[in-house]
Amino acid sequence: MDQLDILKEKWNTQNREYPQVSADSIKKMLAQKSTSIVKWLLIIAIIEFVVMSSINFLYSFLGSPDEFTKELMNSNFMKISWAIHIVAIIYFIYLFYKNYKNISATQPTRSLMKNIIKTRKTMKWYIWYNIIGGFISGMITTVYMLNNHPLINELMESGKMEGHETMFYVLTFLILTVIYIIFLGFIYLIYMLIYGILLKRLKNNYEELKRMEV
Predict the structure, then answer these.
(1) In 3D, which of 214, 172, 208 has the Cα closest to residue 7?
(2) What is the dihedral of CA 121, 122, 123, 126, to 10 degrees?
(3) Across the chain, how many H-helices and E-strands are there?
(4) CA distances (Å), 168 to each of 148, 173, 206, in order?
(5) For 168-187, what is each residue's pLDDT tens digit?
(6) pLDDT of residue 101
């Protein structure tokens, strides 16, 4: 049993002669826990950004033996999408930092509850941005590959797919789409494992504050 649980137990069982002192103590502890959770959300988001940026930088620096991959990575679409992604992630990190600074033990309970809700919404938008953005980027990359990959072009030019080009494109696109959805589903589960636990704790803090306000 941690310090917060002990305070809540005392607050529930004590004589109501001094309710305000105990309620303030619990609110302060909830604020401290919420601040710690938001700090970890911020730290994890920064680590994720640094790791992904490092991987992209190393991949660009080392290059690829595949000429098609080099062409794809140097395409305007990839450069623009990566620039947009960097700006978006930096903006989300700024929002996490702002939420972290806004949560304080000295603020009114309703303000604390409002900031907790805002933090949870920000994190949910962050997760869905990565999932939806990744899906859109993947679909555009798939279309680009189907129209430009040398192996596919060679297959089409050989005449082996004559009369079945449309079916080939549709089936290949559907197969790659399913694979990409499964991959993004796996990424979503990882997000839920990492961020979901922290968001659940933040929600519990909110519910506790809500009960204290009644």
Answers:
(1) 208
(2) 120
(3) 7, 0
(4) 15, 8, 52
(5) 788 888 988 899 899 999 98
(6) 83
